[in-house]
Structure formats: structure tokens, C-alpha cells
Here is the input.
Amino acid sequence: MTHFSRIVFVGLCLFTIITKAFALEKPVLTVYEDSNKIAGIEQAARDFASLYECTVNIEPKSAEEQMSLVRNAQEKNYPVPDVFVGLSEDAKTAIKDQVIEPLDFMNSDRQFYTSSSLAPFEVDSKIYASPRSVETSIVFYNKKLLLNKPKTLSDYRELYKEDKKIYPIIGLLNKFYYGFGFLNAYGAYLMDEKNSNSPVGLNKSDAKEGFKALIEYTKKYMPVEDLDKGQQYLDKLFISDKALSVINGSYAYAKYKKSGIDVGCLMLPVLDNFQRMSAFYKVKAYMIPKNSRHKDLAQKFIRFINQPEYAFKRYLICGDVVPENELFLTFSYLNDEYALTVLKQCEYSYPMPDQKFMADIWGPANAAFVKSFENAESSDENLDECVNEIELIRYERHMKGDEAYKTSKKLQINTKNCQHLNNK
Here is the structure.
């Protein structure tokens, strides 16, 4: 063998060794998961890693901070996770800013999910997330004390007439976050689906009627003087048998069970206008960053762990209600009151809008509630002032060139009302 032949032979051997080494190196999928929810996906992740001959690294991160971590990493060109958990109220802005990738498989898999869980993640017929769990407000009741399940607000009134020493239902309905569900049932809205240029619809005539009905009921049948003491105080009333039921977020179920109460779950009541009271609902979902290194594998991973078998195990371990139609049938078969109530209520509830959108609403809306509960006769005027103030805030943002409001066509600025408020 000549010297040149030896060099060629050695080179080929090295090339073969290096090629095999790279071939044997498994791809590593980095997944962010809620710190206290990792146990719910560990088995699915192991099965996926075995099937697709890869390594799955699960990193504990709070779901509330994951989107900002991904954005920050993208801005600084740092490595990003391949899969993370995002919140529905952050989705539309993330899609607009091209932070996340559309999930191709969801075009065919959308049939497996409830319609309400997909709505926050769909833009231009593309779906950018796969729902992991849903949360909304429901009624928790004491099974020992409440033998006949109330369905309407009128049913709760009748219970109060029977025993005025115990409250039939309590909740922070004097706060906009919970009270909006009452107004929404009377036609109030934050975003007009038919006209995106419309101002918020908190002061429509029917909404004003609903607001009066809310104030009247709350003052007459709830400990209105104690509502400002907060949810913990109401929970004490409920746990100490001074209230038959309480309105709270679905996440409170585990806490009530741990308290020793034989707790049951109901949808929010049907109101006097024959419409069911709604609530804000939120969806946590699996997303893929735009600059993930393993997009195809990440899509396969999300689809794999959201199979009904693994999703149901996740529910049993973590208590997360997964909004899948097949699981709805499973919950029905098992007569799982909690999961069924959450899924059904979500179909009657209102998706929590984008955080930037809500930033302009919380202040004026909460102020309108405070003033109206102090003086019910001024409730109409307070709602009008609330809407005008929101429009003024947006007008000022627009004039300052805020990015969220630069496209004036997307926001109808009521300049007459804004000018009126400026002159006050």
C-alpha cells in the first residue's frame, strides 16, 4: 500500500467513525413544564423517547413565566425550549409577534378538542397550540347540606327564603372579574365578534339591566359587607357550613376536598333572563417557539402526550381538566362531576382576552363596580363613564404612538367622548 493509499484509507476510516458517532447521537428535546405538573407527563415522555430514539429533558418552569422566558431568549438569540406551556391570554400577541409556530397536525386533530379550547389559538385557519388544560369559575357546593341541586338564580332565592341563617350561594360578584359573567349573560362584551372596530360593550342597555340585577341580588342574598374581605373569607364561610355553595375558580377543587367537605360541583346558574351566567375561562396549551431546533420532533411529542390515554393519566395525577371530546365521554361514563362541570361551563364562558387588551379595562371596570355597589342608582352612569374612560385611555395611547394602537383602523376611537372626559 502506497503512502497516498494509506492516507486515503485512514481518512475514510475517520470519516466512517465520525459519521457513525453523529448517527448514534440522539436528538435532545427540551420541554418546559409547570413546576408542579411534571409528574403528569413523565411516563408519556419516557414512552416517546423510547419510540423515537431521542432524549426528552423536562425543565420545571412556572406556566405564567414561560412565554416571557421564550421571548427573552429569542430577543437575545439564546437557546429556546422545543416545547413550552403558554397561556391563552398571551397567544394572540405571540402569534402576531411570530414568537410561536403553527402546529400542522392540529388541522386534522382539531376534531378531538372542544371548540372553546381552540378559539384563543386560531388565526387565519391556523392553530398555534395544542390545549393542555382549561380553567374557569364554577359553583362548589356542600353535598351534605345541599341535597337538591339548584339550577337557576331563582332556585337559590328559594333556598334563602327557607333558611336565612345560611347563604345559598356566595361569590365575589362585586368585583369585575366575577361580576362580568353576570353582565355577559345579559349581552355585555369586551370584544364585538361582528365588529372589531366597536368599543367595549359594557354599557349596552341589556347589560345595564343585568348590572342592576346583579347588584340587587348580591345585596339582598349575600353578605355584601364582607365581600371585600376576599376569597379566603368566603371560603371560611363555606367550609364552616355558613354557606351552601361558593363561586370560585376550578383550581380551588383540591383545596375544598382537602378541607374535609363532601364537595360537589355545579355550573353557574341560569339567570332571570334565561341565560346562563358565564365566567372568564383560560386555556394552558403546548406551544413550539419559532426558532426551535427540533420542530418536527416537537410536533410529534405534543401530539403523542396529548393522546387521550396520556391526557387522562395527566388528569388523574395532576387534576388538570383536558378539553378533549373523547375524555368528555370518559368523564360522563365515570360520572366525574368536577371535570364535566368545568368542560360544560367553558362552553358558556368568555375567553380571557389578551393581557395588553385587558390592561386598559381593569381600572375603569373595577371603579364602576365599586361606585355602583356604593350607590346602585348611579350604575347606568358608571358603566357609561367606564366605557368612555377606556376609550380615552386607548385614544391617549394612540396619540402617543403606542404599538398596540398604531393601526387606528383596528380601533374606533370615540373622540367626542374622549374630548368630553378631557374637559372634565
